Amino acid sequence: MRAQMVKWGNSLAVRIPRNIAQEAKLSAGDPIEIAVAAEGAVELRRVGKLPSLAQLVSQITPENRYEEVSTGSAVGKEAVEW
Q: Which terminus in the chain has less CB density within 10 A, N or C?
């Protein structure tokens, strides 16, 4: 399938046709890595999706939690009310 390079600000852009994006399982906002492969070839590689906060929090277990850390007594005029 052919596409056309267009100017986008100071950069260049190529629109990825819908059927190609669907086949590659790409959607708007997906992080990708762009690299120069062989002579004149450009590669797009999907970067692992960033986990949501909920996904990260769900991985917290008693085994991987840190104990409370003491930072010492107050030094200035800060008020710590826990």
A: C
Euclidean distance between CA atoms 45 and 37, whole angstroms? 11
Mind listing the domains of the chain with CATH numbers? 5-64 (2.10.260.10)
- In angstroms, the CA 57 to CA 36 distance is 37
Tell me the residue type at 10: N
The rounded distance, in Å, linking the Cα atoms of 54 and 6 is 39
Q: For 13-56, what is each residue's pLDDT tens digit?
A: 999 999 999 998 888 988 899 999 888 899 988 887 778 899 99
Q: Distance between CA atoms of 26 and 47, rounded to whole angstroms? A: 11
E strand map for 1-82 = 5-8, 11-14, 32-36, 42-46
Token pair listed for 61: 């277990």
